[in-house]
Description:
mainly alpha, 2 domains
Amino acid sequence: MDFGFVLSQSVTQAIGVTAIIYCLAAMGVNMQFGYAGLLNFGQVAFVAVGAYSIGVIVVTLGMNLWLAILVGLTVMGVLVAITAVMDVVLLVEVFPASIRSTHGSALASRR
């Protein structure tokens, strides 16, 4: 058995998967910052919560890695849903009030 070949293949596979993950993260940042001009690292928080939950589940509970990945994705999805609901509530309740206040002050200054 050639251990040099086995080691080189292991390193290649590890770097390949890591490179794909970094490329996907870079494409997400490029979509937001490159096209939209918005510097936003909020998606990193969702990925971090998913990765942390996977690590805790595997190390603490000793669960299978693939099942832990599904649980981590579910935890991340629940966090995204909670954040989305809070954003919609904020958009519906606060944004119209801010528009009314700015237009109301502009109308009051014209009189």
